[in-house]
């Protein structure tokens, strides 16, 4: 359903923000347009009633838990009794006209989806970032409004539009810490909330696996602290990282701990969360795309597949089987039929492969090694458990690399042969 363009000369819109908490709103219609309107109304915590013989599956899912009241019938006069706001979004212009006329008589503002000229209210293109709401009216052109809305949200997210008020710490209270998972490396794979947190930071404590190009775009006044932990090499002690987060937050700064992958998947994010909580520092966790799933996916390797595997296990390979500090039950993993994903396991790969074979996996079990996942130098090599050690040496595979064990590896190989 496309809205009818309206000549802006027919009237200048007066923008307001409706506070609809616990107020009755009636939506007549159950299609895609109605679904989009209901989603926004629920975000405003309105009490929504949908009047329609049928609704989309997504709308029906909202009815189940009681978020929406559904009257399973056609619109009838009187359906707007008690409403503060109404939406006419059916495919029948006559019904929409009847709803709009009832709303006019009852002095209830009504958005008519099929005819903006006949609407008493125009719905702006809306976007949200935290408590900041952006609403744009496009002078009668909805696509113009959407384009401007998206540009403003993009600017707020990447920092090119500075929300300075959001950076301030009112009343001299302590600053805060946000633990951000940056994803596997490509800056495009960080979440919107993660990028927003980085753009608003006063201090960024980053490791070498975090999206480095995001750091280059930060303003000069933002302090960037290198907290890298190189494999078998230089590293910043975790205790020092914890202390830095607390120190800067207590000084009233907005601190972002930017990691590769997800903070809680071998990222020691819980230790940092505990340190902040113990110090009384407000802390937020922003999940990231873990390389355990994201990197194989980028290489065309699913960690599960219908009819092939019903489980996958993510294992840290930073210490080999038999090491006193190892907490992995390698014997159990050897008996599994599903997928095993190994992180931080380049140097220990020969020992891990041998342990899996010893405890039940066949030497011919396929293995894929994905190095530098999500970066321009990403490459994938395929081998078997028996040939893994030699392949890593021949191909000069170095960290970071993720390797996958299981029949799912054959799926991507088969696709490559078909292309």
Automatic annotation (TrEMBL):
Keywords: Cobalamin biosynthesis, Lyase, Methyltransferase, Multifunctional enzyme, NAD, Oxidoreductase, Porphyrin biosynthesis, S-adenosyl-L-methionine, Transferase. The active site is at residues 207, 229. GO terms for biological process: cobalamin biosynthetic process; methylation; siroheme biosynthetic process. InterPro entries: 4pyrrol_Mease (IPR000878), 4pyrrol_Methylase_sf (IPR035996), 4pyrrole_Mease_sub1 (IPR014777), 4pyrrole_Mease_sub2 (IPR014776), CobA/CysG_C (IPR006366), NAD(P)-bd_dom_sf (IPR036291), Siro_Cobalamin_biosynth (IPR050161), Sirohaem_synth (IPR012409). This is Uroporphyrinogen-III C-methyltransferase. PANTHER family: S-ADENOSYL-L-METHIONINE-DEPENDENT UROPORPHYRINOGEN III METHYLTRANSFERASE, CHLOROPLASTIC (PTHR45790:SF3), SIROHEME SYNTHASE-RELATED (PTHR45790). The lineage of its organism: Bacteria, Bacillati, Actinomycetota, Actinomycetes, Geodermatophilales. One of its GO terms (molecular function) is uroporphyrin-III C-methyltransferase activity. Pfam families: NAD_binding_7, TP_methylase. Pathway: Porphyrin-containing compound metabolism; siroheme biosynthesis; sirohydrochlorin from precorrin-2: step 1/1. It catalyses: precorrin-2 + NAD(+) = sirohydrochlorin + NADH + 2 H(+). It comes from the Bacteria. Residues 177-388 form the Tetrapyrrole methylase domain.
